[in-house]
Write a structure and sequence with these properties.
This protein has 346 residues and is an alpha/beta fold. The protein is built from 10 helices and 15 strands. It has an 8-stranded mixed β-sheet, sandwiched between helices.
């Protein structure tokens, strides 16, 4: 089926709407929707704001009221066919009497997929795949998590030029600049889980929260997850009231991710030490690396990652660099975003 100029413009608007929320919508994707009249004018628009809130289609339909009948719904993700915290969007569109649905990305979630088929069976015209790559890019981590049926894992590290995460005496505050640390909190806000090991809790006593440049806690906080068999010190800051915390009593990275997936977690920010990082890398469970590199040399101290079992340069792990950003400040730092070799297809 052909796509009209009005529908193309509406898809551009829907993609913009999908990117509107300041906070992560996880475990749900970012979705935008525009309803068009027969003459191509906009009837209503909407977007998803997070779990438990109306999906984009329902948000737009509620604003349109009776004007939705006979309209075309342009949406960035195939309407869901599943009733969870909210009802199925495919059923809402059918009930509202829309004539046509144009969507971008097909829903990769086997639980929610099938909306296009339900709409077609109800006699509604359906066109899919319109600017699907742009829509997928908007929800890249969510899409990969759903396809792999485990949380997407971003390993975040702060390192010196010579690959050290701490000095020989164990001190590690602060390797990177204040500006780089502020950027880390932006990265934390994009995840729904922060994961460390029990050793990191014992040695560094991190709070693992998202804070603004003034040090104030964000309203919405990711889950704090601690992985390991040892009991946590009762006075540990990770157990304070600022955010929810779970203790994953396992040393197996896959088992830890399975437990987090069961808790509907889609994006894990791995913030543990070199041993935990090596365990996830060796298991092929790191999907993305974000490295903050400071212009500092230590010459000795803790490495950024523990032994990976690599004994010759030809076997070296060579992640693919996807972004290089200089973080300005009195002492500029560099943020590198990379994809590990075993996950280069993502």
């Amino acid at each position: 089926m052909t796509i009209t100029a009005a529908e193309q413009a509406a898809m551009s608007r829907a993609l913009t709407l999908a990117a509107t929320p300041d906070l992560s919508t996880l475990p749900n994707p970012r979705v935008g929707c525009v309803l068009l009249a027969d003459d191509g004018t906009t009837v209503a628009e909407g977007f998803h704001r997070g779990a438990g809130t109306p999906h984009a289609e329902v948000d737009a339909l509620s604003r349109a009221g009776g004007r939705a009948r006979g309209a075309t719904a342009v949406v960035t993700l195939e309407p869901c066919n599943h009733t969870g915290r909210t009802g199925a969007c495919s059923a809402a569109l059918i009930e509202a009497g829309v004539r046509r649905v144009v969507h971008a990305q097909s829903d990769p979630n086997p639980i929610a997929a099938g909306g296009a088929a339900s709409l077609t069976a109800a006699g509604i015209e359906v066109v899919g795949g319109v600017r699907a790559e742009e829509a997928r890019a908007l929800n890249r981590r969510w899409s990969i998590a759903v396809e792999r049926q485990r949380p997407f894992v971003t390993w975040k590290l702060a390192t010196t030029l010579d690959g050290r995460s701490a000095a020989a005496d164990g001190t590690s505050r602060w390797i990177t600049s204040p500006e780089a640390r502020h950027d880390t909190h932006r990265l934390r806000a994009e995840a729904d889980t922060m994961l460390v090991g029990t050793r990191t809790v014992e040695v560094d006593d991190p709070e693992l929260t998202v804070r603004d440049e003034g040090g104030e806690h964000a309203v919405v906080q990711p889950l704090r997850a601690v992985m390991g068999l040892r009991d946590l010190p009762p006075e540990a800051r990770v157990l304070n009231h600022c955010a929810e915390t779970v203790h994953l009593r396992t040393r197996d990275p896959r088992e830890a991710l399975d437990q987090l997936w069961a808790l509907e977690r889609c994006h894990v920010l791995l913030e543990g030490g070199p041993t935990l990082a090596a365990a996830f890398l060796s298991a092929g469970l790191v999907d993305e690396i974000v490295a903050y590199v400071a212009p500092v040399l230590l010459g000795a101290g803790s490495p950024s990652v523990a032994d990976l079992g690599i004994h010759t340069i030809t076997d070296a792990e060579r992640p693919h660099v996807t972004d290089i950003t200089v973080i300005p400040g009195d002492v500029p730092n560099v943020r590198l975003t990379l994809t590990p070799q075993q996950n280069k297809e993502i």
